[in-house]
Amino acid sequence: MERKTQVKINRKKLMLAKLRKSCSCTPGKLKNIIMGFFPVLQWLPKYRCKEYIWGDIMSGLVIGIILVPQAIAYSLLAGLKPIYSLYTSFFANIIYFLMGTSRHVSVGIFSLISLMVGQVVDRELLLAGFDLNDDALPGLGDGSLWNNSQPNTTAFNLTIGGASVECGKECYAIGIATALTFVAGVYQVLMGIFRLGFVSMYLSESMLDGFATGASLTILTAQVKYLIGIKIPRSQGHGMLVITWINIFQNISQANLCDVITSAICIVVLVTAKELGDRYKHKLKFPLPTELVVIVVATLVSHYGNLNELYASSVSGAIPTGFIPPKVPCFDLMLRVAVDALPLAIISFAFTVSLSEMCAKKYAYTIRANQEMFAVGFCNIIPSFFHSFATSAALAKTLVKTSTGCQTQVSGVISAMVVLMVLLFLAPLFYSLQKCVLACIIIVSLRGALRKFRDVPARYHVNKVDTLVWVITMSASALVSTEIGLLVGIIFSMLCIIVRTQQPRTALLGQIQNTNFYEDDLEYKNLSSVPKVKIFRFEAPLYYANRNYFLKSLYRLTDLDPNLEAARRKKYEKKEQQQLKKEDQTAANGLGMEETIMQLVPKQIDFQAIVVDCSSISFLDTTGVNTLKEILKDYKELNVSVLLACCNPSVIDSLKRGGYFGKDFGNMQELLFYSIHNAVQFAK
């Protein structure tokens, strides 16, 4: 076979041409840039109103109804007031409608992201000297975020627009959240500009599942105190899960009976409704709005039963209507949370892209991962000016969206309108809603993630290494912290890949009878060995990290180390010469000399050629090429040929550049073969 002549590309000219093209500005190019940046301009004019509108309206209303109670509930995770969760849900849906490329993904508030935001908020509040256990935070009063009259134990001075403003606990908490969200959005936009979307490829499915499950355990633990109505310190730092459970058991005697009874009833109702919904989902046109019903009923019971006054049951408190005037996130706070924003940005993008790709594959359309990066980035940057916090695509809401007839992101606008109605008119009605009810909604929403524990045996049966990645990531996320869990998961996943390539499978091959094919002699029966030929397979790239393993495996399977054998032969020749010179001393030396000579007799080699099956070697580095040159030279000294078979073009090019085939590739026809059978025939 002859290789095609590759046309040499002048990279300098190519780069200059690309640069010239990218820097040129024509009306057509400007239009394409705008249309690409706002995909809504492409698909909205082609919107099939009669075909799509009812599905979009139905899914939008259902998601909006689910979104309101979830937004209020997830505010507990973020350590913020419910109004900010509603802002987040509203702005995220509008911006993704304009910039997203997925038709079905539901972007908005997400439990895992809320938890990560809440951990940073709690840490910074503690460092600023605020009391995390102040349960009764005041409302927004006059609607101003930067209100210095809040009765908290500490006030903190922030510099905003060059002016120093005294800031209370709630003001400082949302300031931290918006700064964190802004920086995360900037990271995502920069990743989009520099086309770093490939970073998400290093987040394996097992690692993400383990991370989500570990974070779910942390979320569940954080909600237990609301569930039973006890007041315990909000644990921070590493080992939060263990410390929180210790505090729970130490203070279990202080449990609020009213909250315990309410929680038990709500969990039974929610779980029963979810199980019935899952069982009869093929008969239901849309999911049951159980969360909304529970919230409405619980609010009415709490209000008319005066549960807060009579039984000291903790309630949500005042939720103002309307919008707070926008504010620029505080630059000083951005510097404090810049490191925390990086894992937040990566996780937010990874979940969004993976869900977008899942929906695109299911419904046969394409998404642009880089544009998704921009969309999620601006879903964080713009809302951060409006007192919102970080967002991401959410699996549960996305599945509901697709099951209720969603066709396009018009459904997201409908959901945003539902949230807007609550923001403008209905928010104050949730004043008497008990926090234990919100905790129940959060805990029941974790069913899917917690059910992953049931899949561990099946996962272990499929792949033991992936199961180990899941267990390690889940344990680190739950027992240490979410950020450390993410880092541990990524590093451990990569180490598993490295170890797999460092110690891959190796085998000697035998011939399948009456065919030209060869397979692993230990795995298959009735294979016949080829006389005088050893066929060696190495199932990994050959590079510096596995060079020694390659050589050890080759020597072990062929039962011949050429270096040892060459040294043995040299010693034998040397002893033989000494014996010839000292024949007169043979009698004196006696049997000892004969035993020494016997030990140094050259080994009888039962093969004359080694065929290396390179079909699984995807690439060679310099060390890999030198290793092959080394075994070629070493075995040649023992009159054993080394033949390469099934090399891919990149491996052949590496061998050529490394001088494996000699000057002008003169030995190439005798060293390289396109199939194992050709190499065997040549060896015979």
TrEMBL record:
Subcellular location: Apical cell membrane
Substrates-to-products reaction catalysed: sulfate(out) + 2 chloride(in) = sulfate(in) + 2 chloride(out); oxalate(in) + sulfate(out) = oxalate(out) + sulfate(in); bromide(in) + chloride(out) = bromide(out) + chloride(in); iodide(in) + chloride(out) = iodide(out) + chloride(in)
Keywords: Cell membrane, Glycoprotein, Membrane, Phosphoprotein, Transmembrane, Transmembrane helix, Transport
Membrane topology of the entry: Multi-pass membrane protein
Primary site of residence: membrane
Entry's Gene Ontology cellular component terms: apical plasma membrane
Protein name per UniProt: Sulfate transporter
Lineage start: Eukaryota, Metazoa, Chordata, Craniata, Vertebrata
